[in-house]
Amino acid sequence: MATVKYKPTTPSRRNMQAPSFEEVTKFSPEKSLITKKKKTAGRNSYGRITVRHHGGGNKQKYRIMDFKRQNDEPAKVIGVEYDPNRTAYIALLENESGKKSYIIAPVGLKDGDVVYSGAEADIKPGNCLPISAIPVGTFIHNVELYPGKGAQLVRSAGAAAQLMAKENGVAQIRLPSGEVRIVRLDCKATIGQVGNVEHETVKLGKAGKTRHLGIRPTVRGSVMNPVDHPHGGGEGKSPVGHPGPVTPWGKPALGYKTRNSKARTDKFIVKRRNSK
Q1: How far apart, in whole angstroms, are the C-alpha atoms of residue 151 and residue 149?
Q2: Which of 69, 155, 207, 261 could form a disulfide with 128 if both were Cys (CB 3.0 to 4.6 A apart)?
Q3: What is the pTM of this model?
């Protein structure tokens, strides 16, 4: 994938860098695999804002993804599409019985390719196998945490995990963050790296593009009143008045660990992402 740079015809165009979409071959979604996506604007059932900076944005339809890959029939790729709900591109598959499904498109997957799911599948991008059948050292994505639940890890553009070791019924997987985590061998994973690798080089270029994504403006706490933020108030430009910056609710904003010290999943983490 490459990105497109624009001539600086306007101030916003000067800094804009957009995807070229050269990997995309199908430009309209499969109607049988789309459903409504309701907007909440960050509000709960009482109408109160529980997630800030959400609202507006372009209208979207949700594409129903097959993260479980339980059908063992060979499936042919009939198109690679853009998905507004994720950073990765998606591939439309059709199996021998005519059933269609969407999967995340890995690097190198093209129209006409055939992908397989099952322990006997080859080690090729797009094929889904139990971790027990994948050789150590292989790069994988769409990793399950619980057998049969569907992929939960390593699903964003350009991401890839590596299978580091297998023993005693579990595998050690190094995630894109650097964390090494234990996963059961009967969980599934897909071979290869997630496509749209150059997504991180995209530059929106203007505030309006952020609004199209459904993101509303973020206001600095130092320009608020004391009733709205701990940094607020004072005459002119005032310091925050704390040992360090804090959130609107008074929690430290830098370096403060929010993970539960008694988290049930601690026993599955072999190495932290930020450990030396």
Answers
A1: 7
A2: 69
A3: 0.88
